[in-house]
Specification:
123 residues, mainly alpha, two-stranded antiparallel ribbon, 5 helices
């Protein structure tokens, strides 16, 4: 089995299955500072301007929103870091690397019981 370096400690762990990222949604609360640091650093390394203030805002946003789906996490994260549309391809690639692929499941699309109407275009 392939190993990958742990983003926060340098230790190795089994490689993720296809579509999984370095961080699972359920693990964000357990090590929030490491999650914020890892994502912020990777985004910065990818060429997106990330300031300490923006990283702090991201941590606070995750504490307040407590995302329960990958979609909520994506939208919260994107609202903090993307300041120009030209950043979206880099952001999307790094988000998928850290948090998993953009392939959505029904659970990701359903936002706290509000159902598919949340995603539907206005009539």
């Amino acid at each position: 089995m392939k190993n990958r370096a742990n983003a926060t400690s340098g230790a190795t762990e089994p490689a993720a299955r296809a579509g999984e990222g370095l961080v699972r949604l359920q693990a964000i609360d357990r090590d929030l500072p490491a999650v914020v640091r890892t994502f912020s650093q990777r985004l910065h390394d990818g060429g997106v301007q990330v300031t300490p203030v923006r990283s702090g805002l991201y941590m606070r946003a995750l504490q307040l929103t407590k995302p329960r789906s990958r979609r909520q996490l994506y939208l919260t994260t994107r609202a903090i870091f993307v300041t120009d549309l030209c950043q979206l391809p880099t952001f999307d690639r790094i988000f998928a690397e850290v948090f998993g692929s953009s392939a959505r499941t029904d659970a990701d699309d359903l936002d706290a019981g509000r159902g598919p109407a949340l995603l539907a275009a206005p009539a």
